[in-house]
Amino acid sequence: MSKGVKAVMAGALALSLAACGTNNNSATGGNDNKGAANGSKATNQEKITITFQNIYPDPTDPKHGAVKKIVEQYEAEHSNIKIELDSLNTDQQKLKLKTQAASKEVPDITVVNPSAQMKPFVEAGLFAPLNDMVEQNGLKATFQEGILDWYSFDNNLYALPDGNNIGVVYYNKELFEQGGVKVPATFEEMIEVVKTLKSKGITPIAIGEKDTWTGSFLFMNVLLRTNGGPGFLQDVQDGKKTFEDQAFVDAVDSFQDLVQAGAFQEGATSFDYNAGENLFKTGKSAMYYMGSWATGGIETSSVNGKVGVFKFPTVKGKGNPNEFMLAPGSGFAISANSKHLQETKDFLNYFMLNFPKVMFEAKGAIGIAQKVEGDFKAQGYSEMAMEILDLFKEVQGGDLSFDNTMNPGTSQAHLTSIQDLFGQKRDSKEIGKDHQTAYTSNKE
């Protein structure tokens, strides 16, 4: 079992225990709200600004509220510290960080994805090791077992993750009833559901494909099925397979079948992640494929109480629905060149210690990377959230996203290629060949 699977399985255990949990509605890592900042080297006469880049611009996202709440708490307790928030959507943040990294002007705290996406920044010496920080106040123990491995290189930890999730299909029960359709057991049935919904004027699936990772995340779940299980990208890297193999070609064909059936809203590539998700959250689409982190935002939306979830189905008779797309979340990293390195570490330590408790209270704790104590049902989490908790218990493995596995050059070629499929149908073998060419030319 890979370390990623172990991390998700550990998360499932932590969440399932919590779901059955105690009547203590608090979160592991809860404290007296003093955090690590008591050890700060700053003095009251020294005014310090810490720039906190994040990917929570949507006010309906529980993480957005959690960030603001913890920042306000910290500033109230540390009058000399100002936390300046730079809230961007995911693709905007990635692009901005790339520009900042080129000039070695990384914000005090920024956001980075695990594994392959982190590696170039770490190799460039842009992030500060956090080993010493996580030992303060028991912070390391608040994380699910194995999850920090994805953010570590050469025995140094460089980022702290916000999530540990699985890919699921959310569906609007009312719109399914209006359309006269049922939850599909196979991908082929899913396409028929799409066609039926479309014929009745209901947008079948919402997506925010302006942020190119969203289409890739869905495509990779198709590939997980056509490959008959996880490991296709690893096999490519190990020289056992190529992108021209049948499993990849079949995945492209099936994905294009979904697009050609009219699965997505008109102009899907002009909708960013938040706009795409909002279509579902406002009842304007019947389905939404996303990581389980979307649960909290859906719970606070107008469709709360109307939503169920289902596992991504088999494709062409292949795959195991209990194998999921695994999504160790984006992580918070600290600039190695921060002018206030110790103060920034103190704040991030405080932030992460308080994050599980605040997220639990905001009904946003499904799929976070830290252990959560408390009775989810008693706290008022929805039936949908409890379904997600049950799905975590059934995880038998899976894959990471393309851009968390492959090098940046190959990943960019892939993301662009998948986005192009929303506008035009292409020969699947040619797409496989293009991927292989990109991989060969960018191979390290």
Automatic annotation (TrEMBL):
Entry superkingdom: Bacteria
Signal peptide: 1-21
Keywords per UniProt: Signal
InterPro entries cross-referenced by the UniProt entry: Bact_solute-bd_prot1, SBP
Coiled-coil ranges per UniProt: none
Annotated spans, Disordered: 23-42
Metal-binding is among the record's keywords: no
Protein name from the UniProt record: Extracellular solute-binding protein
